[in-house]
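Subject: Glycosyltransferase subfamily 4-like N-terminal domain-containing protein

B.,
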Amino acid sequence: MRGRIAHLSTVHQSWDNRILNKECRALSEAGFEVHLVVSAEQDRVTHGVQVHAIRRRGRFARLLVSQAEAWRALDRIRPQLLHFHDPELIPMALAYGRRRRIPVVYDAHEDLVKQIETKPYLRGVAKYLARAAAGRLVQMADRRCDAVVTVIDEIADTFVAQRDGDERPVVVVKNLPWAADFPAREWAAGDRTVVYTGDISVERGLERMLDAVEVADARLVTAGRCLVDESRLTSSPRVEHRGLVPPAELPGIIGEGQVGLVLLSRLPNYEHSLPTKVFEYMACGVPFLASDFAYWRDLFGGLDAGVFVDPDDRGAIARALGELLDDPERCAVLGGNGRRAVEDGFGFEAESVKLVALVERLLTA
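Prediction pasted inline below.
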């Protein structure tokens, strides 16, 4: 083995796509001994990764009880490097790294401060205090972590790439799909099925999707965590909600669709995000219908793999969806373009090389 690595999360699911299926899997396939300490039902081995189960708890219990349980699990593993994924773990992870004298890597999945803006339950003074606390946490990670991994250049730019005159790695590992895991859709006459995968909320386009499939006479298949009253989905005869599913089931679900939807609201954390589901739709050869964000258009516009639409124009969304569903031949062309783009470099195969190189560098420093 090339080294013993521990990944840590008390917030994410035990089969989280980025953590387990991408980063941990990539390191295991590269020959490292990889452990994942995470909330789970039981210990197991997946993709060669040893998953160590800790109990899932509520937000406040996580801050004390779960972190103490995670610390004990790490002591049993005795890692040579700790890579953690939750902002609330920043103080604990830094303390563990200092105590055990091992390098610590913070994985910034999102811009934490901007993310506060998308929380509908935070208003006024509460939102101000949450932003301030988030800023202090990120500053702590920036100053003291041995490396930072993140998903897009814009988030990487918020971290300092030098510390005390020395280079400190800030590495972008994009949240792209493994191309090999996503078989391309076989195209035939369309059955007017559209798909959406990921967290389901008003901000993420729930009402837009429901309106669009009604007007376009379509069927909507959803898979993901429902952050609103689930009856909003189940009460519609046009919607089939599969719930939260393991990553291995996503390719099959996406492949049922003639179009994949990504109709997010115009919020700062969304407008400058790297939409994983768009890449997954492309990997399956399914065209996307996405919010017309400038960042997304710059990223995907030249690929001719989908259609952009104003997320605030319900009529335009329905018309664009109807036009795609009425033209399966066009969908096949757009989907094929997306699949080729993933095969040519928009896959996690290339991103894994950067992660492995970072770990090798930190272990030999």
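The chain has a mean pLDDT of 92.

T.
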